[in-house]
Specification:
The protein is α/β, with parallel strands linked by helices. It has five helices and ten strands; from the N terminus they run ββααβαββαβαββββ. It has one domain: Dihydrofolate Reductase, subunit A, CATH 3.40.430.10. This is Dihydrofolate reductase.
């Protein structure tokens, strides 16, 4: 069965964005960027895949992306209506109307959507791109988390999850470290 994978970047103190949804403070390095393109190129937006010269590479991990409105909005702000053209795109929002036929807006229960997607016959997984509220709502369905921890503390912002107190155990299955201080933690539901 397909898995829902929360592939997300975070600061050391657990924030996926600043208080105003900023992400431009996350430091990058050549070694880390090279790894990201090679290992998780499917999770990059189409314009980044072109920059990395992998625009035409076949998908190897994901064929579908599920994201919240705030994750989708930066693309809309610069006139991009289909930011992940190489994936089936779902945006969970109760206020957005689909600006592009390649993007499906879901205004209903995201858990029901994910369960339907998981039941599909595919060897590739579903990429949960965020944000915190959607990740919190989908926590019961998250099978795996790939947490890209950036070597920066920001103090406040958008947390990894917005949900009530509900402990869920995950098992650490892999750690990638980079000379730049980046760490990638791979967790599977325990």
């Amino acid at each position: 069965m397909r898995q829902l994978v929360y592939y997300i970047g975070t600061s050391i103190d657990g924030f996926i964005a600043g208080p105003g949804d900023e992400v431009d403070f996350f430091p990058m390095s050549d070694e880390y960027t090279t790894w990201m393109f090679a290992q998780y190129g499917d999770a990059l937006p189409s314009h980044a895949r072109q920059l990395g010269r992998i625009a035409d590479a076949p998908n190897s991990r994901f064929d579908t992306i599920v994201m919240g409105r705030r994750t989708y909005q930066p693309a809309l702000d610069v006139g991009i209506t289909s930011p992940y053209a190489h994936l089936r795109q779902y945006v969970v929002s109760q206020s957005l109307e689909s600006p592009d036929p390649a993007v499906t807006v879901v205004d209903g229960d995201p858990v029901e959507l994910v369960r339907r997607l998981k039941a599909e016959d595919s060897e590739l997984d579903i990429y949960l791109a965020g944000g915190a509220g959607l990740a919190g709502a989908l926590l019961p369905e998250i099978d795996r988390m790939v947490v890209k921890q950036y070597p920066v503390v920001i103090g406040s912002g958008v947390p990894l999850f917005t949900t009530g107190f509900a402990p869920v155990a995950f098992e650490l299955t892999d750690v990638q470290t980079f000379g730049s201080g980046h760490v990638v933690l791979d967790y599977r539901r325990a």
